[in-house]
């Protein structure tokens, strides 16, 4: 992959061989300097939320220090600067995911809200009794519960694509067994946050579109980690969160195909989303503002723009290449541990930078607690994937997830910490 990526000689984040200069990147993340329980922090919980570079932190502070004002209303200088910076982030997001226009980008709070927006607006007016919505058993609750509620309200039916022994989608019988003349929506995750599987969403979306079925991709775990282009994927909706891609919390994105957004009803209503209000009723503002009622999260949206700049400077192909190398190394080391069960496909090209595993002798929560004592932060539990965990026959897993600032040395620290946790646990249990 590296050979195809041009090296930018003036880019300090790229090494001469075209890979990420991780040591340089790490200097931008103040939190990586801190210690946890007296040890250097090894942050491997990036699927939950990523850390923030100084460029993002500074952009946030700079807004409040220099040009804090409400947007789209004031004609004063501060209001104009704030509006421009906010709308500039919309344009950056559009370019980042290959959207045809900034008008296709709606700012919300997070992935969860983006999916709910579609369920409440498009879903309410297009799903009726007997209609079918196709999901997978691997969906995060955020791409499952809104559809369960909608189906219940409308008398629609949910169909779930199952999984195979490697926790890939079981596509035997696809598409005929799932996509029928009653199917109205295909809503699927791009990368599983539970086990790291990358799904063949482009091919699945193409089958759905051929049948006139609307498609939604939950990109919470793909947009931060690999090149994602909505025109290439061909999806109607894409949802993702800024906080998982170096940006602040409280900002999410819904990309929507313009024709659909234009005909959709608003989600929340009130100020900012109208063009005219009388005592009798109101007319809506144009897309995307029709979907952004009230004062939005101005500062965080602007700081998200700095996160997009940062990732763009790294190059998403390099981000993906770095995570593949780390994941591959971590898998090779983890596989040497006795009795470990690692979930997800063997083929590294079908995996994101997420490794979910279980050690039969230690409950994942106990492992997580012991690793924390070594400064290693992982996530344990069901990862908002209860149906998937049930399918795997476990209450939860331990999960390490990587990002641009993680190193091979940190993988070694993880393995060493697991070794010591196992030894300690054996000792404790023997007593
Ligand atoms: N997954 C994790 O630790 P929000 O919380 O709205 O920003 O993102 C929700 C969400 C939706 N889809 C997928 C695939 C996700 O991974 C997440 C968030 C976190 O795995 C928190 S549960």
Please, could you describe this protein's structure?
By secondary structure, the protein is of the alpha/beta class. Helices cover 38% and strands 15% of the residues. It has helices spanning 22-27, 54-67, 77-96, 111-126, 145-154, 201-210, 230-233, 258-263, 298-314, 316-334, 364-373, 386-392, 408-430, and strands at residues 35-36, 39-40, 42-43, 105-108, 132-136, 157-161, 183-189, 214-218, 237-241, 252-256, 274-277, 282-284, 341-342, 354-358, 376-377, 379-381, 397-401. The strands form five sheets. Strands 4-10-9-8-7-5-6 form a seven-stranded mixed sheet, sandwiched between helices. Ligand C6P binds at residues 47-48, 110-112, 140, 142-143, 189, 193, 218, 220-221, 241, 379, 383-384. The site of ligand C6P has 17 residues, from helix 4.
Identify low-pLDDT runs. Answer: none
Number of helices: 13
Number of individual domains: 2
Question: How far apart, in Å, are the first and last alpha carbons?
Answer: 51 Å
Report the strand count: 17
Keywords:
single chain; about 425 residues; alpha/beta; Aspartate Aminotransferase, domain 1; Aspartate Aminotransferase, domain 2; 2 domains; seven-stranded mixed β-sheet; 17 strands; binds ligand C6P
